[in-house]
């Protein structure tokens, strides 16, 4: 068995939601902030998936991660920045890639127009006042 090295830090939790459905964390740094993205709710159920991506940011990699309203992710806070939209159901399982100062989120979703076939997507992250967001396209990608 492998033993952890150093301190263990709780970064995010959903204690008020049955089974605490949170997974697929990814952390990246932009400027002075670290950003934590997590997937919430139910994955891997095709068009019945309720997966979504939530986030918070911190000035230290160990947190605490908060959203604009000050709610801490380790106390059940966080804000959904990407949920089901149009034919794209249950986005999640994300990672972030940076190239030449532009940030992209890579994730999967279930295609509601193709009986829930799983698809991969790269989305450009937009920024406003130090917070990432995604344009809503309503696309049938």
C-alpha end-to-end distance: 44 Å
C-alpha Rg, in Å?
A: 15 Å
With helices defined by DSSP (H or I, 4 residues minimum), what is the helix count?
0
Shape: globular
Q: Could you name the CATH topology?
A: Tachylectin-2, Chain A
pLDDT averaged residue by residue: 90
Q: CATH H-level name... which superfamily?
A: Glycosyl hydrolase domain, family 43
Number of DSSP-assigned strands: 9
Approximately how much beta-strand content do the residues carry? Answer: over 45%
Q: Give the H and E element order.
A: EEEEEEEEE
Return the CATH architecture: 5 Propeller
Reported for the largest beta sheet, the result is: 4 strands, antiparallel
Protein name: Beta-xylosidase
Family: Belongs to the glycosyl hydrolase 43 family.
InterPro entries: GH43_arabinanases, Glyco_hydro_43, Glyco_hydro_beta-prop_sf
GO molecular function, one term: hydrolase activity, hydrolyzing O-glycosyl compounds
Q: Can you tell me about this structure?
A:
This protein is mainly β and 141 residues long. The protein has a single domain, classed as Glycosyl hydrolase domain, family 43 (Tachylectin-2, Chain A). It has strands spanning 22-30, 33-40, 52-58, 79-82, 88-99, 102-111, 117-124, 126-128, 131-133. The chain has a 4-stranded antiparallel β-sheet with strand order 1-2-3-4, with no helix packed on it. It has a 3-stranded antiparallel β-sheet with strand order 5-6-7, with no helix packed on it. A two-stranded antiparallel sheet has the order 8-9. Strand 1 and strand 2 (33-40) form a beta hairpin. The protein is globular, with a radius of gyration of 15 Å. The mean pLDDT is 90.
């Amino acid at each position: 068995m492998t033993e952890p090295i150093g301190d263990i830090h709780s970064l995010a939790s959903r204690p008020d939601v049955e089974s605490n459905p949170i997974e697929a964390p990814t952390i990246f740094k932009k400027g002075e902030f670290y950003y934590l993205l997590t997937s919430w709710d139910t994955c891997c159920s095709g068009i019945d998936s309720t997966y979504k991506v939530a986030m918070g940011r911190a000035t230290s990699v160990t947190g605490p991660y908060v959203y604009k309203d000050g709610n801490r992710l380790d106390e059940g806070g966080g804000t959904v920045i990407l949920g089901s939209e149009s034919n794209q159901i249950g986005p999640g399982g994300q990672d972030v890639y940076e190239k030449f100062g532009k940030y992209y989120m890579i994730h999967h979703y279930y295609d509601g127009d193709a009986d829930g076939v799983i698809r991969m997507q790269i989305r450009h992250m937009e920024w406003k006042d130090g917070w990432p967001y995604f344009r809503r396209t309503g696309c049938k990608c």
